[in-house]
Design goal:
CATH class: Mainly Beta
Number of strands: 14
CATH architecture: Beta Barrel
Radius of gyration: 19 Å
CATH topology: Porin
Number of domains: 1
CATH superfamily: monomeric porin ompg
Strand order of the largest sheet: 1-4-5-6-7-8-9-10-11-12-13-14
Helix content: under 10%
Shape: globular
Largest sheet: 12 strands, antiparallel, barrel
């Protein structure tokens, strides 16, 4: 576990350093680079824990006008937790378009590929864990709170499980107790994941908590869970994220 985490940390450091290296070499690329580095108590994907312990995650995003491309990585102990144990890392590759539609409304359309480099083939179906999905988002900032929805579709949810849909919503409410010096937000999200395969059970999930930004670090603590009785994955989670 220690060697694996060290390898992931090294890879994420290289990912974060890529824009600076390009700039130092005089590569004047159009558009903008951004990214994040995150340390969390657990990697939770749509209500289901994936890392079975601390998670180290990172992302790198390139934006050119409304078009963007992004790579994301995390340590992971299970390929989605649906029978394919043994995946030590998860990589996501995403591309899409994002628009500011005016009136504090934004929308996006995306395609995302989930890759589990070392996940074994699922014995019952003979299929690998990798899959892709397409989706769209719509959000609005109402001033006193912001809300958004995200709908995603996968023609094959990996492991040969067939079609899957995910319907999700999120809300954030600023709490101006300490003013701009210590901004606090109450945040929550919930969703419903459906599957065409009889091997998997449709379920709901949720996450709610509070976050604040201190010296450029985003601190979050909350509670996450789902409606799957056999997993009963409910508990307190925490994350520290550094955007760059």
């Amino acid at each position: 576990m220690g060697i694996r985490m060290a390898s992931i940390a090294l890879a994420l450091f290289a990912l974060a350093a890529a824009p600076s290296v390009a700039q130092d070499k005089g590569l004047d690329l159009p558009g903008e680079f951004s990214g994040t580095l995150t340390v969390g108590s657990e990697y939770v994907y749509r209500g289901i824990p994936q890392s079975n312990g601390p998670a180290l995650q990172g992302s790198l995003r390139y934006t050119l006008g409304p078009i963007y491309a992004q790579a994301w990585a995390s340590n992971s102990e299970a390929a989605r937790g649906f029978g394919t144990k043994g995946a030590n890392i998860e990589l996501n590759y995403e591309g899409g378009v994002a628009f500011d539609m005016g009136w504090d409304v934004s929308a996006s359309a995306y395609g995302r590929y989930y890759h589990f480099p070392d996940a074994p083939v699922f014995a019952l179906t003979g299929e690998g864990a990798d899959y892709w999905e397409v989706g769209g988002t719509l959000s609005k900032d109402f001033g006193v709170f912001a809300a958004g929805v995200d709908i995603a579709y996968s023609p094959d949810f990996g492991n040969g499980f067939g079609e899957a849909y995910n319907y999700a919503g999120a809300v954030s409410v600023p709490v101006p107790i300490f003013g701009d010096a210590w901004p606090i937000e109450l945040v929550g999200e919930g969703g419903y994941q459906t599957f065409s395969s009889e091997l998997l059970q449709d379920y709901g999930y949720y996450e709610a908590g509070a976050q604040t930004t201190v010296e450029g670090f985003v601190l979050f603590v909350g509670y996450s869970g789902n409606t799957l009785a056999e997993t009963a994955n409910e508990g307190v989670i925490g994350r520290v994220t550094r955007p760059f």
